[in-house]
Amino acid sequence: MVQNIIIDTDPGQDDAVAILLALASPELNVLGITAVAGNVPLDLTSKNARIVCELAGRTDIPVYAGCDRPMARDLVTAEHVHGKTGLDGAELPDPTMRLQDAHAVDFLIETLRTEPPGSVTLCPLGPLTNIGTALRRAPDIADRIARIVLMGGGYFEVGNITPAAEFNIFVDPEAAQLVFRAGVPLTVLPLDCTHKALTTRARNDAFRAAGRIGEVVAGWTGFFERFDMEKYGSEGAPLHDPCVISWLLAPDLFQGREINVEIEVESPLTRGMSVADWWRVTDRAPNALFIGHVDAEGFFQMLTERLGRL
Ligand code: RIB
Ligand code: CA
Fold it and tell me: pTM, whole model, 2 decimals?
C-alpha cells in the first residue's frame, strides 16, 4: 500500500539524499515538502528543497516555507558542516519552480485535518519547529497523524553539536519536547543508528556508477564527509536523514526498542539532550521506537539502486 508522507526538512546534503530516495520510491506518495530553518537559514532550505525536486524532475511536488527560527531560541545553523549554501559539493542551477504561498505550518494542519485520520506519516529531517508549532496551534491533529518518523537525538552516540545533544533536537528543544510528548506513534533514527550508515570510497563509487543523480550525491557526500572524518576519524559521511526514508521502505534493515525518551529543555549544559531510557531504569512509559542499529550494506544497496532509477 502506498504511504502518504510529508517531508519536513532543512537541506542539507543528507536531507537532499533522503528526498531523492523518497521521490525514487513508488511505495511513497510525497504530499508535500515543508522547509524549516536548521542547517542553513530558511531562505536557503526552502530554495534547496526546490533544487532537489528539480534535480529529480519532480516540479509537481509542492514546497512550503515554514518557520525561520526555533520556537523559543535563537537559530543555530551548521554551515561548518554543510557549507554556506547548504548543498555545497555539487554545482546545481537555481530553482525555477516557485514556493507555495501557504506557510508550511498551515499546510501541515490543513492536510492532516483533510486527509483521512491515520493516513499521513510525517518525516521530519531537521529541527522540529514546524511540527511543534503545528501541534501547539492545532492539538487536534495529533490523533490524525499515522506516525512521526524523525532523525534526531542520540544515546550511546550522545551528541554531535554539543557533548550532550544532536543538532536537530538541540536547535529547537521546546519543539522536540512537544513532539515527544504528543502521544503520536514515533520512530526515532538517532545518531546511534545514523553513525553506522557511513559512506565509503566504494559506496561513493557505487553512487557515481548509478548515473547522473548518483554523481551529484557523491559530490555532496564528498563535501560533507570531511566534518565527520576530522571529528570522529570515521571513514566517510553519516547519511543521517536517508535512514528515515529507508526505515519506511525497509524497516527490517533496522533494529530498535520501544522506550521512553524525554528532551532536556532546562539546563544550558545539556540543552536538547535526548534522555533515552534504553535500559528501562525508570517507570516512564515508552513513547518512541528508538533505533540503535542499521544493516549498512543493505541500506546502501537499496539507496544506490533507487538513486539509479531517477
Ligand atoms: O545531526 C544530524 C542532523 O542535523 C541531520 O538531519 C542533518 O541534516 C542536520 O539537520
Ligand atoms: Ca537535516
Answer: 0.98
